[in-house]
Description:
There is one protein chain. By secondary structure, the chain is an alpha/beta fold. It contains ten helices and nine strands. The radius of gyration is 19 Å and the shape is globular. The structure holds pantoate. Pantoate binds at residues 30-32, 60, 63, 131, 134-135, 153, 156.
Amino acid sequence: xxxxxxxxxxxxxKITGEWRRKDEKSAVxxxxxxxxxxxxxxxxxxxxxxDRVVATIFVNPKQFAANEDFGRYPRDExxxxxxxxxxxxxxVFIPSPAEMYGPHFATTVSLAGPAKAGLEDKYRPQFxxxxxxxxxxxxxxxxxxxxxxxxxxxxxxxxxxxxxxxxDIPITVIGVPTVREEDGLAKSSRNRYLSKHERSQAVAIxxxxxxxxxKIRNGTDHQVATTAAVRSLTTLGFKVDYVTARNxxxxxxxxxxxxxxxxxxxxxxxxxxLIDNIAV
Length: 280
Ligand code: PAF
């Protein structure tokens, strides 16, 4: 069955309100479209927890800086909706920028903590205020019981989890493991920017993280391992923004050898910026 396409908040509230009245649990899968297997995994995980799944497609202007790829971010509503239909998603919310941000829109949801860990926030200072503002709206607009986020955007996952906790939004944020291509490259809407040669190089980020994690598990200091990872990626032609080990929950720089660690990386290959992370 085709999902209901919803363009307004009022219409969305009507649909999700009916689900609630029937005591049906719902999960929201927030996306910016350009869907791939990773998003469909979020949908499937949503259905494992809830009776209904609503996906949202909105390329959120507030999370892009002027020099970023907002204009060229891939948009293909028909193909996205067809993919969501094949997963039997119940509703797809596709608001316009004007529906999301009315003429007098004046609110920003802004977090410290994981949103200011010196990772993505350092290189994309506007990013998390844009993400938390739109995600808070999506949580409140859908009234969903669960929200599905990929672990690939690890800092985003930690940030929206903290936001829901801090603002007492009654939703459970679920992190879903990263879906990878056969060679290990994390699936991403931005992979479609890569040339054939760049695509063959791109997997080095995952391989380098895997090697660094293994070194840390075998007793190498995390800073030594991540410095070597930066060197190795740079030698391969990447422009590295960061490769770092952080506390897996707070994203703070680890202080003890016993903390749970997450290795997190961002690097450019040509004109494309890729991010990835793995547990240590
Ligand atoms: O991860 C994304 O695609 C976006 O940051 C999100 C969560 C849909 C907010 O615009």
